[in-house]
Amino acid sequence: MDVPSQRRVLHILVVDDHVENALLMRQLLRTRGYSVQVANNAAEAEEQIRAQPPDLILLDVIMPGRSGFELCRQLKNDRATRLIPIVLITGLTEREDRVRGIEAGADDFLNKPIYAEELFARANSLLKLKEFTDELESAEDVLCTLGLSVEARDPYTEGHCERLARYASELGRHLGLDVDAVTALRRGGYLHDLGKITVPDEILKKGANLTPEEWQVMRQHPMTGEAICRPLKSLRAVLPIIRNHHEHFDGSGYPDGLRGQEIPLLARILQVVDVYDALRTERPYKAALSHEKAEEMMVREADQGLWDPALVEEFFSMLQKEKAA
Predict the structure, then answer these.
(1) Between the chain's N and C termini, which has fewer beta carbons within 10 Å?
(2) For the segment 90-131, what is each residue's pLDDT rounded down to a tens digit?
(3) Which structural domains are found in the chain, ordered by start?
(4) pLDDT tens digits, one per residue of 131-157
């Protein structure tokens, strides 16, 4: 007989410098089965969030020290906390205050005085959304783990995905790309070769001198990886990276034969760092190149039309700045 799994108790953090208000909300929410903690200011809230990230934050706007607006903006700008729903609780009624809350990233508002049914409705709605978001993140984690499992099939590529995720996201930040693009580059580092999961070991580990038939199998992996990730809308920005990271600037790459600026920018970025890491890594059929030799070869190949010359220049400029720092 199957025993039904127990549903996880959802955790809410109430942040309010008026202790009576905070305790009242805690008492009300606990009647609905939620786990509730209370913080009286922004600093306390940060400590509790680090110790136990909540599923929902009810945040008073007017507090001594940092305001709810400031804390909300900080949490929404932090990749580790930006997906936590935040309800701003306010006695302010001016439209400008609502606009300010929206600009800070608030997901919803509650006006004082708090009415129990409205509190329950807002909490329930946002917690359902958070559970859905968590499920999507879990699915992404599974795909990233699959990407690492592809890497693990070849002992010579150990750490390759991690390095690409780091190089690509650093280059994205160096170029001034927004946080969503940088996140897509980091995920692309793990997922770019996911389609190789369908490539047989005897082809994947051969590395060089593939027969035309074997090469045809290998060339399918960008499209296979794209098809695996396509159902997840949260990976939409990663799909061009997966599909197009083997295109060449002169149009000689695959699978679509794209040329120059036709190749999506994020795919061109991932391509540059992928080539660099491949050159710097020992393989059964080649020795690892030094940083200087890798740079020399990539600049030459960019001049020949394989890689985006501007991105190659930016990448090595970034590495030089990191070395000098």
Answers:
(1) N
(2) 876 667 777 888 888 888 888 888 888 888 888 888 888 777
(3) 11-133 (3.40.50.2300), 153-324 (1.10.3210.10)
(4) 766 655 665 666 767 776 777 666 556
**Scanning the structure block, which residue is given the tokens 């799994």?**
5
Question: 116-152 and 179-191 are packed helices; what angle lies between their axes, rounded to 10 degrees?
Answer: 40
Please name every residue paired with 57 in a beta bridge, in sequence order, or none if there are none. Answer: 13, 86
The pair of structure tokens assigned to 268 is 């061109």
Helix, strand, or coil (residue 189): helix
- Confirm if 59 and 38 have CB atoms less than 8 A apart: no
Predicted TM-score (pTM) of the model is 0.62
User: Counting beta carbons within 10 angstroms of the beta carbon of residue 31, is it exposed (0 to 12), middle (13 to 18) or buried (19 or more)?
Assistant: exposed
Kindly give, in sequence order, each residue whose CB lies less than 8 Å from that of residue 312, ignoring residues fewer than 6 positions away: 272, 298, 299, 302
- The alpha carbon of residue 13 and the mean position of all alpha carbons in its chain are separated, in whole angstroms, by 24
